[in-house]
Amino acid sequence: MRTQLTLSCIDVTTVYSYSKAVVLCVFPCSGIGLALCERLLSQDPEGLQLCLACRNMRRAEAARSALLTSNPTAQIALLQMDTSSISSVISAAQEVRLRYHRLDYLYLNAGIMPNPQFDVKAFFKGLFSSSVITMFATGEGILTQKDGVTADGLQEVFATNLFGHFLLIRELEPVLCHEGRTSQLVWTSSSNAHRSAFNLEDLQHRGGAQPYSSSKYASDLLSLALNTHYNKQGLYSSVICPGFVMTNLTYGILPSFPAFLWTLLMPVFWLIRTFTNTFTLTPYNGAEALFWLFKQKPESLDPYAKYHSLTSGLGHNYTQPRKMDIDLETSESLYEKLLQLESEVRKKLQEKQKEAQNAHVHPAETDSS
């Protein structure tokens, strides 16, 4: 049956099929997310219902058009969602629940690193040290960020990279958790996820200078907690690291560098890849672990492992699990704190909605004299 739907003011024609895998990818407009969608469709364009959840609908349309160019029969819908906005996440989740009776895969790919500050002195010092490869692969010691605050009063990086995803999962429980079948959550984490940047007493990283690293380490912890609480309901969570990839996020780290300098650096990066397999460099290579997980039985995966996209010096892509620096106790504490925060933000949102309704019903009186 062919049905016409409107998703966030975007009209798309979709053929419904309960036998096809339903994949929701958050922020797939460019980079690793778009590369993942291309790889999924190239494997089985007829066997997927793909939904692209993006903040910028113009970019979403461009991504959809690019995917349809190479896969003209693919079923690709668009959904507007900003993971930094509580109301946007809740509204988007409502649309998903209305449209799909289940979700088989949810790729949590949204991530920002606002206002990155690059320590040039530390960079050149590290360039001639034994830690040069680690520095390039993780950014450790050379990157700090200046965070912002959302309209909901949350730290922007925390809301975008972690809490918005958590709220989305909670909202989508009815379509993610089904008896007799499994669903997968896949988080795009980072090699920049350091325990040292994370503090349970400062969950949003208000007092630190590494909110990106903190949010990514928190996603590693949260994935473990989600497995603890949801595996019995058929929902499994995994974490990947794409390696060092040249994306818009990477280029944004050094906004003052002219474009030609990146071109000059590329041979250096290719040389480094002969010594470390974490330099995946291209979005296609970086999406290797995301694509690999799509083909695995989630029950067989290790909840304590981060699945790394790796590329050999000869250009061979493969996936390798590596133990994460996480523990069950801390993951449970984080989960409880996120539940508490969820309750608080929902209460505030309800209060705002009531105030708006009252203002509409009882508009402020003005003097007519």
Automatic annotation (TrEMBL):
| One Pfam family cited in the UniProt record for this chain | adh_short
Database matches in InterPro entries: 3KSR/17beta-HSD, NAD(P)-bd_dom_sf, SDR_fam
Subcellular location, principal? endoplasmic reticulum
List the GO biological process terms. Answer: cholesterol biosynthetic process; estrogen biosynthetic process
The record's keywords, sorted A to Z, are: Endoplasmic reticulum, Glycoprotein, Lipid biosynthesis, Lipid metabolism, Membrane, NAD, NADP, Oxidoreductase, Steroid biosynthesis, Transmembrane, Transmembrane helix
Q: Which family does it belong to?
A: Belongs to the short-chain dehydrogenases/reductases (SDR) family. ERG27 subfamily.
What protein does this entry describe? 3-keto-steroid reductase/17-beta-hydroxysteroid dehydrogenase 7
**Phylogenetic lineage:** Eukaryota, Metazoa, Chordata, Craniata, Vertebrata
